[in-house]
Design brief:
mainly alpha; 2 helices; 0% strand; rod-shaped; Conserved domain protein
Length: 40
């Protein structure tokens, strides 16, 4: 899933690059863990 993209292309056509998905995934994991801990 790695792609070499120039900055201007990255900003305009590909806002969803690999680092974006990694951040989103980590955020979702943290939220899931927090919700799980708060339920107890």
């Amino acid at each position: 899933m790695k792609q070499v993209v120039r900055d201007n292309k990255l900003n305009r056509k590909q806002p969803y690059n690999e680092t974006y998905f990694k951040k989103k995934f980590v955020q979702r994991e943290i939220i899931n863990i927090l919700e799980f801990l708060l339920q107890k």
